[in-house]
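Re: the request from the purification team.
They wanted to know what the chain is likely to look like in 3D before they choose a buffer screen. I agreed to run a prediction and write the result into the notebook, where they can find it.
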Amino acid sequence: MILISALLFFIISILNLRLASLILIVLLPSYLLRFQINFLPTTFLEIMIIIISLVWFAQKIKQNNLLDSFKHFKQKVGINFLIILFLFTLTATVAVFVSLEIRSGLGIWKAYFIEPIILFFIFLNIFSKKDISKILFAFTLSAGLVSGLAILQKFTGWFVPYTFWGKDNVFRVTSFYGFPNAIGLYLAPIIPLIFYNIYYLFKKIEKNWFKIILNILIIFSSLLAFFWAKSTGALIALLAGFLLINLFKKKTFALSLLIILIIFSSIYFELLPKNILDTLLFKDWSGQVRIKMWIESVEMLKNNFIFGAGLSGYQNLVAPYHIWDFVEIFQYPHNIFLNFWSEIGLFGLLSFFALIFIFYKTIFINIIQSTQDKKNYFLNFALAWSIFVILIHGLVDVPYFKNDLAILFWLFFGILFLVSNNEKNDFK
């Protein structure tokens, strides 16, 4: 079945590379289909990336415009971004050889850095601004697949790992994934784009009511998936991100600031229910585990300040600093800044900060330039919201170091640069 599916995808890629790329977006969770080709482990998502890359490269060689594609990419992203992208990739490459687990480090380097960045490059080369609505619809369908299975699990229990069957008298759905929080990590950054898509579809003169209703239903199903997965971090990140982006709009600044002050006052004066307060103040079991992880990670990084632990090296290197035996050693520290620092070192972390800075600087410029173009204006706010969700959720989890999440991160950059380019301002 995998061979037949790969062959079919190869034929689609030859006939229509854009359609193949949209299918890949819909099927981002397909990295969970794992298998081996001889001694090389791979996933179906990786096979799709390889097929798209080879077909794109062959087409450019045939058209004799490979060099033009690189010039086009440089023109779209700018020289400053290229330098930061190079440093980010370089630190990840060095981190492979810093690690005590070079083989698994190479796998992470390939799946979380090289493949997503190659896909980002091809994405910017084959798509244009007029394709944004199709890209957003692909995200919507992908969210529908993930949340749809989660809802099915709620009523059937089908495909839920035994670990989450009634543990602590709480049943948690997992969708395609092996753990519940993966649902929130994947869906939460997509939801702002679905909200934007609904706005965009409503603004069209000829309304597609099927798409409008489908987008609304998928937002509803995604929120239900959060609730039944008990993915508290995703819900908090989504709400906090929404409040933060509204601080940058004159019309909503005062109200957003007031809501934020009320929330912080409620936490400070302990006016919220105890279970919510315990979660927000890290007093529950999950919060205490994270605090202990962070303490151990910081101690490890004090002695590995520049290079960190290297890719896939965290568990080995943090083991001597592990003092709470009742807490397992997780694969990552569950904090986006500690994650990057431990995996690709201090300069890798700084290059990540630089990428985020360029992202929001570009958003700010786009918003100023598109005040008369409401579609571009609100799309930029949706993108800002999506990255805020990743950063806020990342304070307590791992929102990048997973195949689908790494690609998601770079596709958001891809959409941003499509919006920012000098082509026709409007898109269909």
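For the purification team: The longest strand covers residues 34-37.
Please add any questions underneath this entry.
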